[in-house]
């Protein structure tokens, strides 16, 4: 998890929120990470993160079995073509590790996920996070020019 967070922090204009106990964020978010394009260092208003790392089940999102020890899931927003190329149409086991899968809740919005990225998916996860970051930057620039 820390390697991925460190890599994303190195992206130009990246803002990584990593809520900890006792902070301003809800307890359920403690220990997770949220990735934004925010060149001013301020959390964008009315914008979702382009990627997250979650370390536990959230209400309504239990298929990845994240409450088991040592499990985490990287979630990344993609464009439709990349999403379809990576996920295909076959049924999936959302608890499978080191496998690119449609997100169990947000797959219809072109989000993928990887539980415990490892040898097979780590480089892909970093590449997809870079692409998601670049897409978030492009959206930011379009909004700024409007």
Would you mind describing this structure in some detail?
A hairpin with an 8-residue loop joins strand 5 and strand 6. The protein has three helices and six strands. The protein is of the alpha+beta class. The chain is globular, with a radius of gyration of 15 Å.
Which ranges are low-confidence, i.e. pLDDT below 50, for 5 or more consecutive residues? none
Structural class: alpha+beta
Strands, total number? 6
Query: Averaging pLDDT over every residue, what do you get?
Result: 95
Strand order of the largest sheet: 1-2-3-4-6-5
> How far from one another are the termini?
36 Å
| Helical content class | 25-40%
Q: Nearest-angstrom radius of gyration?
A: 15 Å
Relative strand content: 15-25%
**Biggest β-sheet description:** 6 strands, antiparallel
Helix-strand layout with pairing:
Elements lengths: L1 H8 L4 E4 L15 E5 L13 E4 L18 E5 L2 H8 L13 E2 L8 E5 L6 H24 L1
Antiparallel strand pairs: 1-2, 2-3, 3-4, 4-6, 5-6
Relevant terms:
globular; alpha+beta; 3 helices; six-stranded antiparallel beta sheet; 146 residues
Concise overview:
By secondary structure, this protein is α+β, with helices and mostly antiparallel strands. The protein has helices at 2-9, 80-87, 122-145, and strands at residues 14-17, 33-37, 51-54, 73-77, 101-102, 111-115.
